[in-house]
Queue: 2 jobs
Job 1
Amino acid sequence: MIEAMSIEARPAGGPETAVECAVTLPTFRRPDHLLRTLESLERQRTRRRFAVIVVDNDAERLEGVTAASPFFAAGRLPGRVVLASERGNCHAYNAGWTTALAEYPEARFLLAIDDDECACEHWLESLVATAERTGADIVGGPQLPVFEGAGTSLWAHHPVFTPPYARTGPVPILYSSGNVAFRRHVLEAMGAPFLDPVFNFTGGGDSDLYARARRRGFRFAWSQEAVVHETTPERRTEFSWLQARSLRNGALSSIIEHRADGSFKGRTKTLAKSACLLLASPFRAARLGLSTRSAVIGLYPMNVAVGRFLAEFGRVNEQYRRPEQN
């Protein structure tokens, strides 16, 4: 299935020279931060030729198109502005990767960054160099929160904000599409739609893609040096948001396991795992709460365990349904 999209802007002048890396940048109603993200890409220190594809996922306001088009028209970066008319996180990523594969046939790597992030100056080089050094097919890096508002530094220790790894090298799997590089052949082999639209408003389409890629034999790595800084609104430190995200994380883990093996044996195994996690969660919560000196952070293992059980009854929080509250 090809995403409904249109190319809204191309760079002025003739055709671009060969592009080694294509960076996709989905956006939804964050025009000011989108420009900050583009400026961070403009500052990349690399000899690799790269282009950027901005994917506006708002056919109503077109704020991404309006903000990014002059940036490319001025020749500050080579790239495209694409409108993905179907709402949803997965549709936006799919449109970006579909465009990258079609528009840049010589690109060996396809990278992704979100419109609430700013890349460090060696971000692109670190991701690609790690892939070349380790032989990995997919490489991720840390998304470090930059909290808005006073007195929020404690939340950097909350598991929803903590990177899954801390050292560069091969890893078993990745979890986020907000800081990642794929070798071209991975997306060509997986085929469109790369992210299943069923995850459009819950998130988790990236984790599902990685789980499917691992079953296909693709290898993963982590680049600790490929840092992006994620602007984190103060509302994401509120108890209601943290609890909703924790419950959602648990639900998605259960759903993805069921998708990997939907047989009776597989579903029974997942349910048994959920039961074990629920039984162990009070002890894990107490240990985490004591180590971080925060009862709210300590609740994370319990919320994840409860979320896994809620998913068995079709209860999954759609945090991306109302982006203004996310």
Job 2
Amino acid sequence: MLQLRPNCECCDRDLPPDATDAVICSFECTFCKSCADGVLHGRCPNCGGGFSPRPLRPPQLLAKYPASAERVSNQQGCRTAA
């Protein structure tokens, strides 16, 4: 099950479970679409993979399967994949 991380790893912007502009890589690294397209040029800085829109969890299932509260962010800010 996806963690649905609560923030962009690049700019630390909040990305609630119903955010339609959240994207993830295959390892669930989570970014806002603005950072993914702009700063990161469509490549995850952690694994080098591409991004897909993060699926939305139906609201009625969020109580039973809540989104993660653990914030993940890069203290140095965004960087492009090596």
